[in-house]
Design a protein that fits this description.
6-stranded parallel sheet; Rossmann fold; 18 helices; alpha/beta; 2 domains
Length: 422
């Protein structure tokens, strides 16, 4: 069973200063939560209160309905494991000896003989990539190696709740990704509840589903990335202006902060005049968008669904985009919005997308714009194989040829056409 955690009215004071002030939240078993907030917000203090390393001034922590204070040290160690910020080792143990300490809660009575502790220790070292260093003195390890050793020790506890305090500190980007991938698999495959204090907001959005944002010792926001990572919340917690956008490749929220919080692609788009409208989206349209944007053309896009990779690119780059619900036909309103964007453009580009009854109106809108004198470029390769309308799409494209629309086979030819007709 995954561990249910409830934090109720948790407060702690140092010298009459409130470090945590009335923290309340509840996690169902199997959650994967990133604990966010600036330095001094109380992230580490909260994790230490949950693990009973600190006694709160007020409030209670419940594990599966039981107060934390009623649990013995052994019971607690079998339910939760902690990977702290400070991973120093005071004595000259080997790496393997330190990791094996994670099995101490299970060395009791007859249980010791029924569990293959060595296999669990060996697996933990393999998973964390520390196995080749198992005979080394722990005192000789680098900061990143110590971090992986302590994480392996935590895995040996086979916890239901894993508390990570800046787990990626001292790790290069490869090991950061590797460690969080291990955490994600533990959560997904074994139902381990995870709370990790993370400074890198963009890394957090790649691995975590829920977020707790602290500010001045209080919970400012709790929920999904869309609910927590807003410009208002970032300003209130971190005190900086931020731009929130979706990454054009994976679609996850990303945070750019600073005096000029625009994304690199947004900055690159400053001062452009609108020139090219790209129809549709998907993987077929994305290379066209990227190539045109890289060459300095201003763009608009649509209609596409919010889940489309083209939509993510447009949102990231601050490009005008028409949104249409997934698996839905083009409505009259969307049709008119589409026409408006095309009439505002100097060129229309139709990528090598497939055509069905749902998006056939996109071709009809393009035909309308072409009739009004807007020039077009069409990817004409294997059109028949992409037509699922019984030949209607092919018929429209044949009329395009008669109207002087340019037909190309690849993105490079699109760029040549635009350059030659400037």
């Amino acid at each position: 069973m995954s561990l249910n955690l409830k934090v109720h009215g948790l407060s702690i004071e140092y010298d009459s200063a409130a470090i945590l002030d009335g923290i309340n939240f509840e996690l169902q078993g199997g959650e994967m939560v990133a604990l966010l907030g600036p330095n001094g917000a109380g992230k580490s203090t909260l994790l230490r209160c949950i693990s009973k390393a600190l006694e709160p001034t007020k409030g209670t922590v419940f594990f599966n309905g039981r107060e934390a204070g009623s649990l013995t040290a052994g019971e607690l160690a079998r339910q939760l494991a902690v990977v702290p910020q400070d991973t120093g080792v005071d004595f000259d143990f080997t790496v393997e000896e330190v990791i094996r300490m994670g099995r101490f809660p299970y060395y009791k009575g007859s249980r010791k003989n029924k569990i293959n502790h060595e296999a669990i220790v060996h697996t933990a070292m393999e998973i964390t990539g520390i196995l080749p260093l198992r005979h080394r003195s722990a005192a000789t390890l680098s900061g990143g190696e110590r971090q992986r050793m302590v994480f392996a020790r935590a895995l040996c506890q086979e916890p239901e709740l894993l508390l990570l305090d800046e787990p990626t500190a001292n790790l290069d980007i490869g090991y950061q990704w590797e460690l969080l991938d291990i955490v994600q698999r533990l959560n997904r495959e074994k139902g381990v509840t995870v709370i990790a204090a993370i400074h890198d907001l963009n890394l957090a959005t790649l691995f975590f589903r829920q977020f707790i944002l602290l500010a001045d010792g209080k919970v400012l926001a709790f929920g999904s990335a869309d609910e927590v990572l807003t410009e208002e919340n970032i300003l209130a917690s971190y005190g900086v202006q931020a731009s929130i956008f979706r990454h054009p490749l994976h679609g996850r929220l990303q945070v750019s902060v600073g005096k000029d919080s625009m994304s690199p692609l947004q900055k690159k788009g400053r001062g452009r005049e609108k020139r090219v409208h790209v129809i549709g989206g998907g993987q077929e349209a994305l290379p066209v968008l990227e190539a045109l944007w890289e060459k300095g053309y201003s763009l608009s896009l649509g209609p596409v669904s919010r889940e489309d990779s083209g939509y993510n690119f447009a949102h990231f780059s601050d490009i005008p985009v028409i949104e249409n619900p997934p698996f839905s036909s083009i409505s009259d309103e969307t049709y008119q919005e589409h026409l408006k964007l095309m009439h505002e453009s100097k060129w229309i580009v139709l990528p090598p997308i497939s055509f069905g009854e749902g998006n056939l109106r996109n071709l009809e809108a393009m035909a309308d714009a072409i009739a009004q004198g807007i020039p077009g470029i069409v990817f004409g390769d294997k059109v028949e194989e992409r037509d699922f309308t019984g030949g209607k799409a092919v018929g429209i494209l044949e009329r395009f040829k008669e109207q002087g629309v340019l037909f190309v086979n690849n993105t490079e030819e699109v760029l040549d056409c635009l350059k030659n007709n400037e």
